[in-house]
Amino acid sequence: MAKTMTFAVMHFSIAFSVAYLITGSLVVGGLVAIVEPAVNTVAFYFHEMIWNKIQQADVASELGKTIQAAGENYALRSM
Fold first, then answer.
1. Domains of the chain: which residue ranges?
2. Within 10 Å of residue 49's Cβ, how many Cβ atoms?
């Protein structure tokens, strides 16, 4: 949990610093520091959902190949 918290502090600090340096506004820097990580968190959630579906498809494909190879192996031994 400590690692997560220090990463969050770092993320907010970087977002604030970059926005402040670009705009010169403490308000804009503060808003970006709050909004950007929140949007990033939501985007990450959907990224993980898509990534998990891709991995599941890969696992299913590999499983299908393994089952097919096992069936072919069995058919050759049966002859």
1. 2-78
2. 10
